[in-house]
Amino acid sequence: MGLRVTTASVADGEKAAFWSGAVSRTLVPLEMRPLTGRPFDGLLESHRLGYVRISTLEADAATLTRTPTLIARAPRSEPQIGVGVQVSGRAVLEQDGRRAEVPPGGLVLYDTARPYAVHYPERFRTHLFHLPRRLLGVPERDLRQVSATAVDPAQGCGPVLLPFLGDLAASAHSYPAPVGDRLAGSVADLFSTLIAQLAAAPASGPEQQGAPNDHLVRRVREYIDRHLGEPDLSPERIAEAHHISVRYLHRLFEGEGVTVSRLVQRLRLEACARELTRRGRTTPTVSAVAQRWGFVNPAHFSRTFRAAYGVSPREWRALPHDEAG
Fold this sequence. Notes:
Low-confidence stretches: 204-212
CATH class of the largest domain: Mainly Beta
Strand order of the largest sheet: 1-3-4-11-6-9-12
CATH topology of the largest domain: Jelly Rolls
Structural class: alpha+beta
Largest sheet: 7 strands, antiparallel
Number of helices: 12
Number of strands: 12
Order of helices and strands: EHEEEEHEEEEEEHEHHHHHHHHH
CATH architecture of the largest domain: Sandwich
């Protein structure tokens, strides 16, 4: 069932707090500051498609802030990736020292695990898509690189992604659960692709100059993504494909805080976890999912998966993932 909250029947002096509380309970805890002197008017509609929450906010000018204090109060809450699609009015999102100005029709990404603020200087309407960060299977470094990045309708995959997201938000209430689960997988794949595309875009700021290895790191990551399901994907093979030594390959990834082997393993586990949450008419076996992503030994896969997620693959599949976040 969906959720619909409006301030229409709330006393004038309580409208702002009422709407702010509803948004915080539905999405993530936020502080809200109205920017008009009149009684606040706001609407919130929210639905789930599998593990994706789709919310539409329409309200008067305001600033929404995700503070370090609010994040610290819920240390065990699952980090979410947020994508905002601006329908009307402007938005300005700030995170990680960057500022993204989002016009009507634009899109912006953010990470709920780190502080951010969104300024809506005029009455606005926006669609917000939240889903667990772990299900995207993208590196932490890429997420930090693309947070507070705006995408306009003519940029990159914007011409494909933005109309799809708008249509999905408008029709989210109408899909039965099995269809919603499959659509959630498509949304996760699209967001992963968007993040990878933005992370691989050439940097133009002066702070990015003097990093000649960034292009090689991106090439290696793209190679890993393309060959992730192949069991023989190893540091030796990756280094040979890029005409560098294994030692130099490891040096390239020192800044990632993980070895290349562990990076490959982590990406494979994330891909398996993502696939195991999907529902459909035909559900592949755990063994088939493991083999598809490069795990040749089922026992080793089960041990590795449990070590990473705290449950076995079968237990993970049985969890109610549509309640995450």
